[in-house]
Backbone:
């Protein structure tokens, strides 16, 4: 038994050695084959990857070349930028071809950077492009910084464009195939490519020199030399630190920050630039503190350049918006009528000079246009030599009772008829209880009478009936861009608007409901006669229906026949209009029209001082009548 057991164990265990050797042999063979395969595969993989990388590099290079060629084949020649031998002339013509003004060469000669004080250039780099001397045309860090600040602010508060990009963009707009309003991806890519090219062919000093000789500083001053002469009556090389900072600050919005238009705002902007210079390490703390107290003296402009200057400045400000930076001599034909302009200036200044002291009125503005928006006369203030701020275009003033036209338009559109009877009783909403000028109750009155006599209670009840949303939407549709208050005080004109906006709204009514978009430029040509711009066809989409416009026209004629405008109505001619008076006599308006002209007048004071009970039918109405008769 023990033998058999031993035998069986021997049978089971004896074959184990050969089997084990066989397995080892098989495993050895299996291991040896994959090693050769793996080595071969790795070598082939490396070769294929190298081949693929080479092909990718070649294709990438080819695609890059195609990309660059496609976006740069029609770019203008950058070498022309270096030609700064003189400033271009801009000749402004009236509608009949007579010269109004010539702006250009007589202002200044091009500046040379090496003769400028160092701090002047530093003022521009601190505010426009702090890393100008370090980047290669595009500032990646600047773009990221601007993106973060804009994201945190929830709106655009800072741009990321470099000085080189600005130069490229303005140059591209005038020499390339694109207009000022072109926002296509192609144009943006071309702007970047041109910026790289400018950095390649010009030195930083050359780029800065070209930029300072080309950039617009407002009031027709193109280039730093022209700006120094215009604002301070001195050469650019004689600018002090504060003056250099002020000019650098103008670039953000030349009209808004002009010391001629708004000295206080200009001073605030200049201090921001000085602070930027301090942060950049260009000036020290004692220097910064010293210039905080500095005040510039007013620049005196000679009388020979005063005619139609508010209009000329407005036209010059429009030019970069239409064709970009002015690079050559231009001839601009405008809509201005010289006879009407002379009449407007004489009437406004004469009446304010005569009646202003007794009425405590120191300023005024007049704007006259056709119903299609073609501006015939523009006076932006009492005296251009003392103040270049254009009150016809730039000023936002409280509208007062002239705003009632939007309330009545909304009511007519809601289905109410001019004969609709409305209670003429005092209105009291909480502690608010507005009264009419020289108020006395007339019982029940029609809508037509409510507008003719400018009855506050009727306007408030109409606004409540149609709803504030409709009134605000109507004002916006008629061209008012400034947000209006969202309460019933809007019915009495507690919101703001410009004279340009209000006059255009009346022109839309005069035009039968078609929009009136104010314009002053008919065409722009180079000195050699090449047309750069021609006024495009006007839009003919109705803003309000013809029927609503006709009813409103009848109501406005009623104002002149029997209402608040009866004493200033035109004899033997159609006249329609509306007076406007604010509750505290801060502002007084009159806007009206005949068959051929729509004219608006505003009077008041820049410091918001109260007038001596001046109503819309009084001084502004008298100026309107004197001009229109």
Residues:
């Amino acid at each position: 038994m023990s033998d058999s057991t031993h035998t069986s164990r021997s049978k089971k265990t004896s074959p184990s050695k050969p089997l084990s050797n066989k397995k080892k042999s098989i495993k050895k063979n299996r291991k040896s084959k994959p090693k050769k395969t793996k080595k071969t595969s790795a070598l082939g993989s490396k070769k294929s990857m190298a081949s693929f990388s080479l092909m990718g590099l070649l294709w990438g290079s080819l695609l890059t070349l195609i990309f660059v060629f496609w976006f740069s084949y029609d770019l203008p020649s950058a070498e022309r930028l270096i030609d700064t031998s003189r400033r271009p002339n801009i000749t402004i013509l009236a509608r009949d071809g007579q010269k109004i003004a010539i702006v250009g060469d007589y202002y200044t000669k091009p500046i040379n950077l090496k003769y400028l004080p160092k701090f002047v250039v530093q003022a521009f780099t601190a505010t426009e492009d702090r890393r100008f001397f370090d980047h290669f045309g595009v500032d990646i860090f600047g773009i990221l910084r601007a993106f973060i600040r804009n994201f945190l602010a929830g709106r655009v508060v800072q741009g990321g464009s470099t000085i080189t990009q600005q130069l490229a963009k303005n140059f591209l707009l005038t020499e390339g195939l694109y207009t000022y309003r072109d926002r296509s991806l192609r144009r943006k890519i071309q702007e970047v490519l041109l910026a790289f090219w400018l950095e390649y062919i010009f030195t930083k000093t050359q780029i800065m020199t070209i930029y300072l000789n080309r950039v617009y500083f407002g009031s027709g001053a193109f280039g730093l030399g022209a700006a120094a002469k215009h604002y301070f009556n001195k050469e650019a090389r004689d600018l002090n630190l504060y003056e250099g900072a002020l000019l650098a600050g103008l670039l953000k919005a030349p009209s808004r920050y002009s010391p001629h238009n708004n000295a206080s705002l200009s001073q605030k902007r200049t201090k921001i630039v000085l602070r930027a210079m301090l942060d950049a390490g260009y000036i020290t703390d004692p220097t910064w503190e010293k210039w905080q107290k500095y005040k510039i003296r007013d620049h005196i402009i000679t009388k020979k350049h005063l005619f139609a200057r508010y209009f000329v400045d407005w036209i010059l400000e429009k030019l970069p918006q239409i064709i970009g930076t002015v690079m050559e001599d231009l001839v601009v034909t405008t809509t201005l009528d010289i006879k009407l302009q002379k009449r407007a200036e004489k009437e406004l200044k004469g009446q304010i000079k005569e009646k202003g002291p007794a009425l405590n009125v120191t300023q005024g503005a007049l704007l006259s246009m056709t119903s299609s928006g073609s501006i015939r006369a523009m006076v932006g203030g009492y005296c251009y030599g003392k103040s270049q701020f254009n009150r016809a275009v730039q000023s936002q003033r409280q509208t007062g009772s002239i705003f009632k036209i939007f309330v009545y338009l909304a009511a007519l559109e809601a289905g109410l008829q001019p004969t609709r009877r409305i209670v003429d009783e005092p209105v009291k909403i909480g502690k608010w209880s507005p009264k009419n000028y020289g108020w006395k109750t007339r019982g029940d009155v029609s809508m037509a009478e409510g507008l003719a006599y400018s009855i506050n209670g009727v306007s408030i009840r109409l606004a409540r009936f149609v709803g504030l949303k409709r009134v605000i939407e109507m004002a916006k549709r008629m061209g008012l861009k400034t947000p209006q208050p969202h309460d019933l005080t809007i019915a009495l004109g507690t919101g703001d608007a410009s004279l340009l906006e209000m006059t255009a709204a009346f022109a839309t009514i005069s035009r039968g409901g078609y929009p009136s978009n104010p314009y002053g430029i008919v065409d722009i040509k180079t000195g050699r006669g090449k047309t750069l711009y021609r006024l495009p066809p006007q839009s003919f989409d109705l803003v309000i229906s013809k029927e609503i416009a006709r009813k409103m026209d009848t109501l406005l004629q009623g104002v002149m026949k029997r209402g608040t405008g009866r004493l200033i109505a035109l004899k033997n001619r159609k006249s329609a209009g509306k007076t406007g008076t604010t509750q505290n006599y801060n502002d007084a308006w009159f806007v009206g029209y005949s068959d051929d002209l729509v004219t608006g007048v505003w009077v008041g004071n820049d410091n918001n001082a109260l007038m001596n009970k001046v109503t819309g039918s009084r001084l502004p109405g008298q100026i309107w009548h004197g001009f229109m008769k």
Notes: The longest strand covers residues 363-369. Residues 16-72 form the longest helix (57 residues).
